[in-house]
Design brief:
The chain is mostly helical. It folds into 2 domains: 1-114; 115-255, no CATH class. The protein is built from 15 helices and no strands. The chain has helices at residues 2-10, 14-30, 35-47, 54-70, 73-78, 80-93, 97-113, 116-130, 137-153, 155-158, 162-189, 195-203, 207-223, 228-234, 237-251. The protein starts with a helix and ends with a helix.
Length: 255
């Protein structure tokens, strides 16, 4: 099966990748494997989420989506964190938009098949990553993406935490608005020697956390528009005015 796994990832032909993935999945489902042997196969699959070519990474993501559909849900629930962590790394680090979009679908499928208790555990882990004292802004940014997925697919399960989430959003956005303002002032005063230098300066603007926070709120508003009433009460008017400039294009037809 090692060779089959390699074909799933490395074959330049899409048809071969799909056929190999089907063979591998059928083997994992039907062949009597011990726990250690099964984990070896799953470890090899997850390791290929960092394969150098996007076609291979997408093939592995599609395989995982099928695996979550066909494996016993009890097994997927037991291994929820084991699957969740490497998928989060793909969302955070993959430079290919198709891979990230496909990964979002795989995460949603994982959340759909696990038990409410396991779902709550992954949600609390996400909230922990979203805390302002989380060590890296990249961790908070991917947590914002995950919150959007929770809002989109499991609003009822996480709705009791909306107040806490809105408080965290307010802290993050206040901090990011201040940092963005400072960088904008610095940019206005600085004379760049080249376009490359200006691009490198702009890359330091922490826009991703703001953007994915907005996307999370868009998904929340789409799945449960009444929740926006809590949002209006949470954000001070001045901050909401600035935030509205970003939100308005997303919330047309929802508010």
């Amino acid at each position: 099966m090692v060779k089959v796994t390699e074909l799933v990832v490395q074959s330049p032909m899409a048809g071969v990748r799909v056929l190999a993935a089907g063979i591998l999945l059928q083997f994992l489902i039907t062949y009597p494997l011990g726990e250690k042997r099964l984990k070896q196969h799953l470890d090899a699959i997850l390791a290929n989420l960092s394969y150098e070519h996007a076609t291979g990474r997408c093939a592995i993501l599609e395989l995982l989506h099928a695996l979550f559909n066909r494996f016993p849900h009890e097994f997927v629930t037991e291994k929820a964190t084991y699957f969740f962590a490497p998928l989060v790394l793909v969302l955070a680090n993959d430079d290919n938009a198709e891979c990230r979009a496909l990964c979002s679908q795989v995460v949603k499928r994982l959340l759909a098949v696990i038990t409410p208790t396991a779902l709550a555990s992954l949600f609390q882990l996400t909230v922990k990553w979203f805390a302002p004292d989380a060590p890296q802004i990249e961790l908070r940014t991917v947590a914002a993406q995950l919150l959007g997925l929770f809002f989109e697919t499991h609003f009822e399960a996480v709705s009791k935490h909306l107040g806490e989430i809105f408080d965290l959003l307010r802290v993050h956005l206040d901090q990011q608005f201040v940092e963005i303002d400072e960088l904008a002032l610095s940019k206005a005063r600085f004379e760049f020697e080249s376009e490359q230098e200006e691009r490198e300066f702009s890359d330091n603007v922490p826009w991703k956390l703001v953007y994915y926070s907005v996307v999370a709120l868009e998904k929340l508003a789409a799945s449960h528009p009444a929740s926006l009433a809590v949002l209006f009460r949470t954000f001070p008017l001045c901050a909401w005015y600035r935030f509205h400039l970003i939100l308005v294009s997303h919330l047309v037809g929802v508010v």
